[in-house]
Design brief:
Blueprint: E1 20-26, H1 46-56, E2 61-64, E3 73-79, H2 91-100, E4 120-124
Antiparallel strand pairs: 1-3, 1-4, 2-3
């Protein structure tokens, strides 16, 4: 009987389409009220502006989770092949810089009222601790 040599079970794979990465944006301050449509000129459009940052960086959002951690964090599922992980300025780093620039203190972005100059973006694969299920 033939045996498999050097077989290793890959426990992190996509079976339905493309490889995905989860990007969690920690805005530090609450974004619970930042849910308006920024395209109509109203304030409180921080979440929509964040989505636009992803698009401007060439990152396709496949899904997004709810605001968590008292409205300070949001996780986006994106295509892994949209992320540049090799250059000096990776896509995750560029996203973080661009999201921080959306801050309420900037006259360039009147559609956001939250202070998010310390926001962070963290990449991970799918793995949920049962103690942290949302």
């Amino acid at each position: 009987m033939a045996t498999k040599n050097n077989f290793v079970l890959d426990q992190n794979y996509e079976t339905q389409g493309v490889d995905v990465t989860l990007l969690t944006v920690d805005f530090i301050n609450t974004m619970a009220s930042e849910v308006n449509d920024a395209s109509d000129g109203t304030a409180l459009g921080g979440i929509m502006l964040t989505r636009h940052v992803f698009a401007q960086q060439g990152v396709q959002i496949l899904a997004e989770g709810p605001l968590t951690d008292s409205g300070t964090q949001k996780t986006f599922m994106v295509r892994t092949d949209n992320l540049d992980t090799l250059s000096g300025t990776t896509t995750v780093a560029a996203l973080q810089v661009a999201i921080r620039l959306l801050d309420a203190a900037s006259a360039d972005f009147p559609n956001i009222t939250a202070t998010i100059t310390s926001a962070t973006v963290t990449a991970s694969k799918l793995g949920i601790l049962t103690a942290n299920v949302v």
